Amino acid sequence: MDDPYAFELDPQLQADTVLVSDWHLCQVRLMNDSRYPWVILVPKVPGVAEIHELADEQQHLLLEESVRLSKALDQLYSPHKLNIAALGNVVRQLHIHHVVRFEDDAVFPNPVWGVGTVQPYEPDKLAETVSALTIAFDLL
Amino acid sequence: MDDPYAFELDPQLQADTVLVSDWHLCQVRLMNDSRYPWVILVPKVPGVAEIHELADEQQHLLLEESVRLSKALDQLYSPHKLNIAALGNVVRQLHIHHVVRFEDDAVFPNPVWGVGTVQPYEPDKLAETVSALTIAFDLL
């Protein structure tokens, strides 16, 4: 179950996101939706849908990587609130959303999932966002 | 900041939930909404809105209590999926939702927040649910 070589990213996640960084447990992937800064962590563990299905050590690594990501988003964007969630109703492969929310964003205070239409980044803006995240991670 | 005696539950959370159990870090509270088995963890730490604002030790305790709650919900309800989320767009005090989801529930696969009308439990059903949760926690 824990053989990292057997991990394959879900095709829907592959289509919706771009890889920003590859951490010890998780891939760090930017949702290609410019409406919100929105990053997901995908543990590179095959066959897992729930956090409690991870081994204890993996659970704690996931927490640490989630906190690292949260601190980077906090420093970069100074959000009103982070929305952190493991849902998986549509894509079952375990992935943890980290969405930067502002009081004047498209749907605040509602959750972002399944609402409105995805607005992919312009290429320059996508590159700039990935670069900013990468630098923020390096500084932590 | 970490003085537990200074912790006060947010009045909205107080109104929407009932106390099931008092754990080391968190209050375990059942959302009084019979549409979904829905339990929140509220860390008894004043002034905290984000997981990454907790001390490292508190973060790891939160993870452990979240996993304990998740395993109990899994054993009690055999859900299709758990939805675990720290949102806080409406109530800022840190609280982590654990919602048991089924493919035939009221709004699946959408998230539950802010959708439809709350259906408070009948008193007997509320007591039965609290009791079942308490027993499940004791067995873990």
Q: In terms of topology, how is this protein built?
A:
Two copies of one chain form a homodimer.
Chain A: H1 11-16, E1 17-22, E2 26-31, E3 38-43, H2 56-77, E4 81-86, E5 96-101, H3 123-139
Antiparallel strand pairs in A: 1-2, 2-3, 3-5, 4-5
Short descriptors:
five-stranded antiparallel sheet, 32% helix, alpha+beta, homodimer, 21% strand, 3 helices, HIT family, subunit A, 140 residues
What do these coordinates show?
Two copies of one chain form a homodimer. Chain A is an alpha+beta fold and 140 residues long. The first copy, chain A, has a single domain (4-139), classed as HIT family, subunit A (2-Layer Sandwich). The first copy, chain A, is built from three helices and five strands. In chain A, strands 1-2-3-5-4 form a five-stranded antiparallel β-sheet. In chain A, a hairpin with a 6-residue loop joins strand 2 (26-31) and strand 3. In chain A, helix 2 (56-77) packs across helix 3 (123-139). The first copy, chain A, is globular, with a radius of gyration of 15 Å. Chain A starts with 10 loop residues before the first helix and ends with a helix. The A-B interface holds A 49-52, 59-60, 63, 66-67, 70-71, 74, 81-90, 92, 101, 108-111, 113-114 and B 49-52, 59-60, 63, 66-67, 70-71, 74, 81-90, 92, 101, 108-111, 113-114.
Brief summary of the model shown:
The structure is a homodimer of 140-residue chains. Chain A has 140 residues and is an alpha+beta fold.
